[in-house]
Amino acid sequence: MKKIFLARHGQTDANNTYTFQGHIDNHLNSNGLLQAQKLAGYFTDLNLPKIYTSDLIRTVETAKPTAEVHDSEIVKVPALKEISFGDWEGLTYEQIKAKWPKDIETFFKKPAEVKISGGESFSDVQNRAWEAFKKIVQEYDDESDIFIVSHGGTVRTILCAIMNLDLNEMWKISIDNAGISCILQLEKRCWIKNINDTNFLK
Fold first, then answer.
1. CB-based burial of residue 37 (10 Å sphere; 0-12 exposed, 13-18 middle, 19+ buried)?
2. How far apart are CA 42 and CA 128, in angstroms?
3. What is the CATH number of the domain that holds 149?
4. pLDDT for the residue numbered 44
């Protein structure tokens, strides 16, 4: 049985200030780096020849301590990156609300129905991320452990695809910084063991 561990990156300063970072290439802050170190302890007993991340530095920095423990290759997969927030990138929630009040309301109430000004829709994100996820998983046999580090919105779209859940329900899934979701797969059938495990951070 394959075990696929899907994690969100550690904390950045933008996460602390509710700034929409999207494709902005922010580094982890000090707490995020500590979360990444604790994440390495979570995977002590697993065999991880490769770790997959998006091509944004915050996912690579999150994976790095685990990669050092396992002597893993970090493979950057651009399709796993966060949603492009377009004109919203680098702005706080309050700044976006002041300029795009209807769009930001729809973003949280019916996220599947929003295409952000100059950016992507969550359907765009799900299409690219789900294909990347399936391609990665297909490379391994049925007794493998797989570790993927991505982003909050992207992780939610993948979980929605696995559960056949409408993207308008995606905000009902809590995904914290460094939170780990575990997906099991056997003979191309997937099911979810747990979502957003953060107990190891305490």
1. middle
2. 28
3. 3.40.50.1240
4. 87
Domain containing 146 equals: 2-201
DSSP 72: P
Q: What are the tens digits of pLDDT across the range 178-193?
A: 999 999 999 878 999 9
Residue 75: beta bridge partners?
52
Task: Determine the 3-state secondary structure of 147 from DSSP.
Answer: strand
- Contact present, 90 and 105 (Cβ < 8 Å): no
pLDDT number for residue 164 = 96
- Rounded CA gap, 115 and 86, in Å? 10
pLDDT tens digits, 16-33: 999 999 999 999 999 999
Q: Residue 189: what pLDDT?
A: 87
Helix (H, G, I), strand (E, B) or coil at 100: coil
How many domains in the chain?
Answer: 1
The rounded Cα 167 to chain-centroid distance in angstroms is 15
